[in-house]
Amino acid sequence: MKLKKYKSISGITSYSMSLIVALCTVISIFSALIFISLDKDAEIINLSGSLRMQSYRLAYDITTNNSENKLKYIEKYDSVLYSDALKSVTDWHSTNEIKTHYFQVARHWESIKEKLLTQREQEVLLIIPSFVDIIDELVYNIQLHSENKFHYLIWISSIGLLLVGLIVIYFVHYINHKVVGPIVQLSNASQNIRLGNFGIELDYHLNNEIGLLSSTFHRMAEKMGHIYSGLELSLSQNNQALELAVEENVLLSKLSIILLNSEPHQNKLESAISLIQDLDAVSYIALEWKSADKEESIAVSQGTKNSELLYTFPLMYKNVIVGTLSCQSEYKLSLLETVAPIFAKYLHSFNK
């Protein structure tokens, strides 16, 4: 028979608590990383938006023939477009659409910068609308990526909290059925034992510490029940023996008064036999002896003889058999052995 694997309550508790702490830690770390990333995305979106505004400003200055500060525009545009924040959109965590649009913006800007430096501002005006559209696409994809991150955060947090809830429900169910329930059974069992009821029912097949305790408690209750039953049986037997002894002493006293303190007569024997038959444990008793000339057998009896075993005991006085005493009794031979000497002595006197 394959033994069940032992599962410690402390082990289950530690494992459940460790899982809950691990899940909460993972959710917290992931949430922190997502929020940091969202904050960085907000900065990137602001910088991308500033590129769009600077593009509009550059177009306005060109149309108003105010392009004297074009080197300043170029320097400012380069500082924004090639900043660490915007260049981070080309890292591994960005989507391919964001990377593609960023490189398109960079290529278009290099083309615009080359035209500005070669005094071809009118060509720049023709490129700026499509350039702004590419910037808008970049901003849109960054915003979409940020929204997806937020959705991922919600989904992962929900799944994590669901897993934590399932672990908590399992742990509460385990504690109720494997710990609290058996402890209540042990408490009820102890009350039953206190009341003298040792036939307790315990679920001692649990493969944990409570199961071991229940099994030990059950074996202890069985042993106590056997001891208690033995004591009750012994006490009952002692009480029966005491009652028998008292009854025998009373009977001997009465027989002595009837038989030993009066002249011998057959009526006395009949009275003595009747006295014995009045006992609850005696259903039939008979006394038989020989007459003085030993030619005739005389018998007196009381009760109804049935199919039970009949016990016969010889009555001897000074090593001479003077008669027999037969009895059907729950006392078996003990009663005959008790009263036989009195009857033997009386019959000896009677025959004389």
UniProtKB/TrEMBL annotation:
GO terms for cellular component: membrane. Keywords: Membrane, Transmembrane, Transmembrane helix. The keyword Transmembrane helix applies. Coiled coil: none annotated. Its main location: membrane. The keyword Transmembrane applies. InterPro entries: HAMP_dom, NarX-like_N, NarX-like_N_sf. CDD domains: HAMP, NarQ_sensor. GO terms for biological process: signal transduction. SUPFAM superfamilies: HAMP domain-like. It is found in: Membrane. It is a multi-pass membrane protein. SMART domains: HAMP. Residues 177-229 form the HAMP domain. This is HAMP domain-containing protein. It comes from Vibrio diazotrophicus. The lineage of its organism: Bacteria, Pseudomonadati, Pseudomonadota, Gammaproteobacteria, Vibrionales.
